[in-house]
Amino acid sequence: MSLTLMKGSEAIAEAAIRAGARFFFGYPITPQTEIPEYMSARMPEVGGCFLQAESEVAAINMVYGAAGTGARVITSSSSPGISLKQEGISYCAGAQLPCVILNVMRGGPGLGNIQASQGDYFQGVKGGGNGDYHLLTYAPSSVQEAIDIMMFAFEKAEKYRMPVLFLADGIIAQMMEPVEMPEMVDYKVDPEKKPWACTGWKPGDDPEKRGVINSIYIDTESLSEHNDVLQAVYAEAKKNEQLWECYKTEDAEIVVTAFGTVARIVKTVVDQMRAEGYKIGLFRPISVWPFPYDALRETCCAPQVKAVLDTEVNEGQMLEDVRLAIEGKKPIDFFGHFGSQFPTTAELREKLLEMLKEVQ
Q1: For 4-179, which CATH class?
Q2: Domain residue extents for the chain
């Protein structure tokens, strides 16, 4: 295995290229500016297109256009920039356009700061744009995992004809880690496999086969039928695309739930406290939509589990999904910080010791 030390933002950008992305449209915003910077140099080398749009709004609409041709297209931004893209993201979902969107989360609300955060969970999982839609949403906890997910993200987007969103806090983009880069995918648009795409029409072709990319349905019956199609797709994704990690939960008396970089902090605490004889485990959702409700319920409602602790760098946004999964069958507590203050191992250990005393 050959490892290369790479910055997260650059490694994720390279992974997208190796997964077949040949169009990038974006706008600089910290802490993800290195992604468009890397794409600006790399895309021309692989025969792709990099374009710095005049705004985030313009960028996501360019994504809409390129995705409509069946091409693999990606955009990236950070928190307030993703907010500006929400109308276009809803359009992409409504038009059933496969694409990949990177959100390198920073502190908020508003402009907040440029440090890492997890405050966009609601925006990503509950839908920041209008209408009844979902995005396949992944929350990687390392640079390597972000690379690995990227290598199948476009395939999933195309399978379900829906956008894929990465919720990556700013630490993942800014850290450097040794990674293994995959081989380049030789991807070309196949009109036979994408009959919905606008791949070109010539005289003599069946007029009914013209690609029409659309998200507007004026009459209520047509819109209702379209939404039925979307909901059937989402139901299939819920059934097949849940991803999670259980870490030392088999005999855990307290299970900690966390996603992204925070889960790495929790793992350190689990290992430290296990060495001291305390039975602590971690449940980490990797897909936050669809959320692995059944797997979390099975893990946390095991007979030996006495309580659950959710920890995030926000007000407890994923906590709502944790509570829905557990259905009141176990006590649930929360420990987290707002903005960009990450919990320390000492803080988490102290909190877990308090909980162990309470449940004895």
Answers
A1: alpha beta
A2: 4-179, 245-359
For residues 114 and 170, the answer to whether their CB atoms sit within 8 Å is yes
Mention every residue, 6+ apart, whose C-beta is less than 8 A from residue 101.
60, 63, 74, 75, 76, 77, 82, 85, 89, 135, 163, 164, 165, 166
> 190 vs 96, 197, 217, CA distance in Å?
17, 10, 28
CA atoms within 13 Å, Cβ hemisphere of 137: 27
223 contacts: CB under 8 Å, gap ≥ 6: 217
Determine the residue type at 241.
E
- 245-359 matches 4-179 in CATH topology: yes
Q: What average pLDDT does this structure show over 115-135? A: 96
Stretch (H or E) spanning 328: none
- Sheet hosting strand 73-77, strand order edge to edge: 49-52, 23-26, 73-77, 100-105, 164-169, 136-138, 287-289
* CATH class given for the domain over 245-359: alpha beta
The pLDDT of 221-238, averaged and rounded, is 98
Using pLDDT thresholds of 50, 70 and 90, give the confidence band for residue 89.
very high
Identify the DSSP state of 184.
P
Nearest to 137 by CA among 282, 234, 9, 7: 234
Considering the chain, what percentage of its residues have pLDDT values greater than 70? 100
pLDDT (average), residues 182-197: 93
Could you give the percent of the chain with pLDDT greater than 90? 93
List the one residue out of 107, 93, 99 whose CA is nearest residue 75. Answer: 99
Residue 234 tokens read as 């989402």
pLDDT value for 314:
96
Give per-residue pLDDT as tens, 245-262. Answer: 999 999 999 999 999 999
Residue where the block lists tokens 């839609």: 133
pLDDT (tens digit per residue) in 289-301: 999 999 999 999 9
